[in-house]
Amino acid sequence: MKLQLPLTMLLSLSLLAACNKNDNDKSVNKEESVEISISQNLDKATEEARNEIINGNISLGDADGKAKKAEITPKGDLLIDGKPVSITAEQRALLVTHRQLLANIAINGMEIGMQAAKLATTAAGEAIKSIFTGDTDQVEKKVEGETNKIEASATALCEQLPLLMESQKTLADSLPEFKPYATMTAKDIDDCHGEVHERK
């Protein structure tokens, strides 16, 4: 038997479907708006932190936290307890190089963290969209692609560490005051690669 619906009911159903579609679109648009806002805030925070790393002093840590506060300035001065250590032109060059390596790794690490934060936001937004579109496979592919990029960036960061350790050794051999802050070991490099491998 063929079901016959009154014209008024058909119109009502059509309007209801249209309203539901508009509500779904609004929900998706709202999520996109939130995602864009979070992304912009992350970009701003990243830029501010990058400028601070490039233009500010970089702090050094010791093995047990008992050594005096130490910093390397952008000009290559070594400050211990706020006072500059007497250095030669060669030692200054080593400090500038070491500071640049530290800055690059710090910036790269920060950017990887920001990429991961953006991915979490994107994944949440895409998951909500998939509720309305039903396209979960596309969401998984997109998130997996971004995850692979982050893992590649993390691996590249780990590969910078041997150069930093070599710089640390050269500087510690040249400048005794720096030795308490030369704490990096081969285990740190292995741990870095191990953490990346665990995420794969």
Helix fraction by DSSP (H/I, runs of at least 4):
over 70%
Supply the helix-strand structural class.
mainly alpha
Spell the H/E element sequence. HEEEEHHHH
Shape: elongated
User: Which segments are poorly predicted (pLDDT under 50) over 5 or more consecutive residues?
Assistant: 1-22
Strand order of the largest sheet: 1-2-3-4
Averaged pLDDT: 79
Task: Describe it.
The relative contact order is 0.10. Helix 2 (89-133) runs antiparallel to helix 4 and helix 3 packs antiparallel against helix 5. The chain is elongated, with a radius of gyration of 27 Å. The protein is built from five helices and four strands; from the N terminus they run αββββαααα. The termini are far apart. Mean pLDDT is 79; it is low at 1-22. The chain has helices at residues 7-55, 89-133, 136-158, 161-174, 186-199, and strands at 58-60, 70-72, 78-80, 83-84. The longest helix has 49 residues, at 7-55. Strands 1-2-3-4 form a four-stranded antiparallel sheet. The protein is mainly alpha-helical and 200 residues long. Strand 3 (78-80) and strand 4 form a beta hairpin.
TL;DR?
With 200 residues, this protein is mainly α. The protein has helices spanning 7-55, 89-133, 136-158, 161-174, 186-199; strands at residues 58-60, 70-72, 78-80, 83-84.
